[in-house]
Amino acid sequence: MRSTGRTGLTVTAVVGTALLLGGMSTPAASKPAPRHTDRVLVFSKTAAFRHDSIPDGITALKELGASAGFRVDATEDAAAFTPKNLRRYAAVVFLSTTGDVLTDGQQGAFEGYIHHGGGYVGIHAAADTEYDWAFYGGLVGAYFQGHPAIQPARTQVEDRAHPATSGLGTEWNRTDEWYNYRSNPRSSVHVLASLDESSYTGGTMNGDHPIAWCQNYAGGRSFYTGVGHLSSAYAEPALRQHLLGGLRWATGRAQADCRPENGYQSLFDGTSRDGWKQAGPGTFTVSDDGTLTSSGGMGLLWYAGRSFGAYSLKLDWKARGDDNSGVFVGFPPSDDPWSAVDKGYEIQIDATDTPDRTTGAVYGFRSADLKKRDRALNPPGEWNTYEIRVEGERLRVWLNGVRINDFTNTDPARSLRDGHIGIQNHGADDQVSFRDIRIKGLPANAPASPAATAATGH
């Protein structure tokens, strides 16, 4: 929180360059993407129903690829699924495929590709494909069951940090053929958007109806979206951005937290600041899309509604450039922002500073794992997600699904076992935005030693 001189290399600039060149780190257990991160294969073979929109989808994906620096190859020849050929691609898109489209040998080649860090993008009827191939069923996330008539519906955007949905509002209203699925994938995937079944007729998933999701799967990355039935869909700017964001994540060019997420309570969802108080100078402004942006400082917006003990705190944040902010935890209630500095801990947001005072650090106490941090970090202008997990006196930090810090408090003047949380507005030249601040309680007697929990990925 204290002002310091800017020193060292501009980390985010380096990271941004790496991503533009096809940054290769992946969250959680995923391995690096294949070397040829500038190529994507679109596969649209059908062995059952064939969508008239497939040519329009191919055209859109090629146009999106050209705009983002991808070379997009399209085929309906399953002979393309060999280990040697698949190594040429950062991701394979299954565009409204249907039925059994690959032989056993081709399936084996694709499984090996995913195991070695390949990316998968499934669009619409990709869920109506390969029902007898268990690996594919896990990769796509859920199989198609049926659909009502084409009609308008309201989609609720659950994750507004992922590049596939970061450009959308909290709701996305459009017309499509809305799939019902044989199972609800929520427990094993990270849901990005879900259908409001009260907004249309024919939904059969009992009010919890995921329609787009992502996951780290078997060493690779998987993104699926149920949209894309109509030819006209591929001309919609919002849908095209949705697909491009999914491609960027699946190829490793953008990072996001795609671990399953359940049981969180919203502390700030963009509609109300109930329970929050400003301490010290400056403020946070709320935009129409529910984004909090820091202004002036040095102050702190803190949640006064209650204190927290063992918990997982998640929030999405975005910096313009070399901006300074941070997330404070474990401090007592006070209208003095320096109380949080002196009695709590700050998880820093700052592109350029000393290692113990830059992004992911426990400010002044412990640097993040810089190599992991740099690979997981999105460049300025793009959203990132922190998970800050507190159990006893242990504090761990995940950035876009990658654990980058593990710190244990030993200072008798401080304690993480009970305290408040807050976000910093650092100064007039520092503008950092936040979205979707949410929290989940953890068992008070959860293991807190590094040895007891080192194997946990989320």
Question: What is the structure about, briefly put?
Answer:
The protein is built from 9 helices and 24 strands. With 458 residues, it is of the alpha+beta class.
Describe this structure in words.
The chain has nine helices and 24 strands. The protein is of the alpha+beta class and 458 residues long. Helix 2 (54-68) packs across helix 6. The longest helix has 15 residues, at 54-68. Residues 1-35 and 446-458 have low confidence and may be disordered.
Q: How are the strands of the largest sheet arranged? A: 2-1-3-4-11-10-9-6-7
> Structural class, from helix and strand content?
alpha+beta
User: What shape does the CA trace take?
Assistant: elongated
Fraction of helical residues: 10-25%
| Intertermini distance | 28 Å
Mean pLDDT: 90
* Rg, Cα atoms, Å: 22 Å
Per DSSP, what share of the residues sits in E-state strands of 2 or more residues? Answer: 25-35%
What does the main sheet amount to? Answer: 9 strands, mixed
- Count of DSSP strands: 24
List the helices and strands and how they pair.
Layout: H1 11-20, E1 39-43, H2 54-68, E2 71-75, H3 83-86, E3 91-95, H4 104-115, E4 119-123, H5 134-140, E5 144-146, E6 151-157, E7 171-176, E8 180-181, E9 190-195, E10 209-217, E11 220-225, H6 237-250, E12 265-268, E13 276-279, E14 283-286, E15 292-295, E16 299-303, E17 311-319, E18 324-331, H7 337-343, E19 345-350, H8 370-376, E20 384-391, E21 394-399, E22 402-408, E23 420-425, E24 432-441, H9 450-453
Parallel strand pairs: 1-2, 1-3, 3-4, 4-11
Antiparallel strand pairs: 5-8, 6-7, 6-9, 9-10, 10-11, 12-24, 13-16, 14-15, 15-24, 16-23, 17-20, 17-24, 18-19, 18-23, 20-21, 21-22
Helix pairs in contact: 2-6
